[in-house]
Every structure is written in C-alpha cells, then in structure tokens.
Design goal:
two-stranded antiparallel ribbon, 2 domains, globular, 8 helices
Amino acid sequence: MSEKKQGGFHNKMQMVIFLLSLLPVLLAAGVYGNLPDRIPTNWGFDGHVSYGGKSQIWVMGGMGPFFAVLFYVLPSIDPKRQNYRKFPKVYQSFQLFLQVFILIMEGIIITESFRPGTIRVSMVVTAMCSILFMMLGNMMPKFRQNFFCGFRTPWALCDETVWNKTHRLGGRMMFAAGILGLLGAFFPSDKVKMAMLIGPVMVATLVPYVMSYVWFRKREEKRE
C-alpha cells in the first residue's frame, strides 16, 4: 500500500516511535534477572500497593511495541482513512507521548521494585495522566472524522460540522480537566487526587457527547 494510502506515516517520526517502543522491552530484559520475585503492579488511591510475579514486567514492556504497531495499522483499516492525512503530526505526537508514558511507568515499577517508597507514585502518575489529558485537549480540535480517535459519536461521524464543534468543545474541556488534575496531583490526600483527576475528565467526556447529539438534532431540524 502506498504512503499516501497509509496516511503518510512512512517518515522519520514513525521510525522514532518504533525505536522508542522497543526501549521498555530492552529495559525489562536488562533488569529481569535482578528483579525480586514479586514486584509492585498497582497503586490504589487508598495507598494500597498490589504485587504480582516479576514476569508481569513483560506485560508493561510489551505494551510499547503493541501500541506502536496498533496505531500504525489503524489508519489503513479505518473507513475514513483518507482523513488521517489531514492530521498526521497530531496523530504521531500522541503516539510519541504514549510511548514515553509507557517507558516512565515501567521505570516507576522497576525503581519501586528495588527501592520501595523512592517515588511518590500517586503524585507522579496523576500528574502524567493530567498532562496526557491536556495534550489530548490541545490535539482534539485538529482531529478529523475517523473511527478510532476522538469523540466518535454516531452524530459526529455523520456530520462533519458536528464533529468539528464536538471536538472544539471537547478539547477545551479536556484541557481544563487536565489542569485541574495536575493541580490535584500536588494535594497530600490521594482521595483528592483521584477526585480532581477522574471527576473533571468524566464531565469533559460526557458533555461533548451530549452536545454532539443536540447539535446534530438542530441541524436535522433546519434541513427539514
């Protein structure tokens, strides 16, 4: 399939993404022999830490290549594949940040496996998720109609104007939710961190979904 049909992702940035996706695997391979038999795998907002067998480090490591291949393939199977040519830099920037996110998460697991308590995990993870939401909020207005990225409501997929309005609103709200989550990351209470991260994101997800329907119905009424 030609570069044009693939969405224009045969470039240096895509190669960087693929190479970066291998780092978690190489890191896991490098430390696996020295890891304790049980490693931390989940940190609850109540302060509880769950542990699992050290082989689970391969799950985190494997997420890098998995998502690199997945996001590379998606444009070629999307019925609206031609639209990816309209936002390739945004699409690849998200992939790049996701790979960095995975690498940092694996680094946290490895560090806490060897020296528990070294990292304030709840603060770091909350801050990283918040930055991800801010990044998504900034990107969303640039998304074009597709079946895999953004607010893929049936009404937005049917009407390009509704799609654009939905993503402008969703982008602003997601960015604001990220700011609130980032502020919450520095509160001492883990419950406050969770509330300031999850609550705003839920609102930022629900409101654009509802407004997508409202805008679609208004346009349908005008056509009638």
